[in-house]
Amino acid sequence: MVEYTRQYGLSDEQLASYETVYRPDLLKGEVALVSGAATGIGRGIATLFARLGADVMICGRNAERLVEAAGFLSQFGTRVVAQPANIREPESVETLIARTFDEFGRLDHLINNAGGQFAANAVDISTKGWQAVVDTNLNGTWYMTQAAARRWIDSGASGSIITITALIERGINQMAHTIASRAGAIYLARTLALEWAPYNIRVNTVAPGVVASSGFNNYREDHLAHFFTAGPMRRPGNVMDIAEACVYLGAPSGNYITGQTLIVAGGHDIHGDLWPAGIPDHFKT
C-alpha cells in the first residue's frame, strides 16, 4: 500500500475530469518530463499534459509512488514512463535525461516541479535542513535544466523549460530556506532565457500561491485553517490552476514568452499574509 494520502486538493477522479480550456490534442506527439510527479502539483501537471496528448516521463525518489502515478496517468492513452531519480545528484539526472531520449527520441517540455521545504522560524533552521532545501530547489533545478539544454543544443532542437517556484516579492514567513532557493531559481531562469534564446530554448517560471494539494499534509492541522484565508480571494488554488499555467507557457500560446514568472496566487502576491508554522503573537493584532 502506498504510504501517503491526498487528503487535500483534487482527487484522481477530479484530475481526470477537470474541465480545461485547452483542446484535447493540443500537445499530441510531444514529450514532457515532469519531476516530482507522483503527488501534489506535479501529479496535476503530468495529468494535464497527458490528457492533452503528450507522452510523459515522470520522476521522483519514491519508486512505489511513481509506479502508482504511472498507472493512473496511463488511462489517458499516451505513453508514460516512470524513472526513480534524485535531482540532487547530477549522475542521477544525467541517467534520467538519457533515458527520456532513449525512450521517446525527443523532449519538448521540462517541468522542474520537484522541490521541498518545511515550516520553521529562520533561527531554528539547521545547517542540514538549509542545505537540503537549497540543494533540491536550486541545485537540482540547475542540474535538470542544464542537462536538458545540452541535449537540445547538441541536436539543434528547441525546448521549453518551466520551473515551479514561489512568491518571492515580499518574502515568505518561516520559509527563509525556500525563499532563498526559489529566488535563485527565478533569476537563474531569467539569465538562461537570455543565453539560450539563440537556440530557441524558452525558460520561464510559475509561482504558485497557496495551493491545496497533498503538500498540505506536511503542515499542522491547527495551522492549516490560516492557509484558506491568507490571500484576498480567501481560498486556496488547486493543482490544475498551476497545470494550466504550465501548458499556457509551454504550448504555442507561450511561443513569445521567455524569462518571465507567471504568478498564480489569487492576488496573494499583492495582499495577504501567511505563517505556515503559526502566527507569532506580535502579528496577531
Total number of helices: 8
Overall pLDDT: 92
Write down the secondary-structure element order.
HEHEHEHEHEHEEHEHE
Rg from Cα? 18 Å
In this structure, how is the largest beta sheet organized? Answer: 7 strands, parallel
Which spans of ≥5 residues are poorly predicted at pLDDT below 50?
1-5
Instruction: List the strand order in the largest sheet.
Output: 3-2-1-4-5-6-9
Structural classification: alpha/beta
Number of strands: 9
Could you explain the architecture of this structure?
- 40% of the residues lie in helices and 15% in strands.
- It has eight helices and nine strands.
- The protein has a seven-stranded parallel β-sheet, sandwiched between helices. Strands 7-8 form a two-stranded parallel ribbon.
- Helix 2 (40-51) packs across helix 8.
- With 285 residues, it is an alpha/beta fold.
Give a quick rundown of the structure:
The chain is an alpha/beta fold and about 280 residues long.
List strands and helices in order, with pairings.
Blueprint: H1 12-17, E1 31-35, H2 40-51, E2 55-60, H3 63-73, E3 80-84, H4 90-104, E4 109-112, H5 127-155, E5 159-164, H6 176-196, E6 201-208, E7 211-212, H7 221-227, E8 237-238, H8 239-250, E9 261-264
Parallel strand pairs: 1-2, 1-4, 2-3, 4-5, 5-6, 6-9, 7-8
Helix pairs in contact: 2-8, 4-5, 5-6
